[in-house]
Amino acid sequence: MMRKNDMETIEITGYTAEGNGVGRAGGMAVFVPGAAAGDTLRVRIVKVLKNYAFGKIEEILAGGMLILISVLVFLSAVARTIGMPVNWAQDVSLLAFAWLTFIGSDIIAKSGSLIRIDMLADKLPAAVQKILTLIFDVMMVLFLLILIVYGFILVSQSWNRTFNTLKMSYAWCTLAVPIGSLLMIFTIIGKLIGDLRRPVGEWRNK
């Protein structure tokens, strides 16, 4: 059964009258603004109704950053080889990588694909599985709170430092830590609430 905040891989097969992309997942039509026919996308479900749902593309920004990093690293290597180094490319790549790390982590958290060892957990009783998952959720929230607090301290300490080649504060890079952690904490709290409400009987089918 499809739920809000589920991540689904959807092939866009058409458009609505308003121009939104349309695909299907779980036997339901899913409307995705900004999607084009022929695209296969990872989509976060933001609203579920009786016969259809609405989705949001989550991975465009992260994918764009990954492409940018790949292009800049390749360009920098080629330029250095021919004796014309592009020094700013490394700093831009570093900035993009910092934000990609935390934005990507939030996307993974929303999809429920955080690293876990389930070889043993799957053999445990459903009630124990639920308890362990709730403990993990709470530990994640506490860890992210620490990252937020110390992340902002790091931002304040790096505010007067600048990139080697860019005329901008290094704080724009370190800001990815508290902002990314803040995004993740909302995701994990939503997961925690969902796990609390989920009946024990459903954990065997998790």
Q: How much helical structure, as a percent, in the residues?
A: 40-55%
Quaternary organisation of the protein chains:
single chain
- What is the number of helical segments per DSSP (H or I, 4+ residues)? 6
* Strand-residue proportion: 15-25%
> What sequence of helices (H) and strands (E) makes up the elements?
EEEEEHHHHHH
Give the overall silhouette.
Answer: globular
Give the CA-CA distance, first to last residue.
12 Å
Specify the structural class: alpha+beta
Give, in spatial order, the strands making up the sheet with the most strands.
1-2-3-5-4
Extract low-pLDDT stretches: none
Strand count, sense and barrel status of the largest sheet are:
5 strands, mixed, barrel
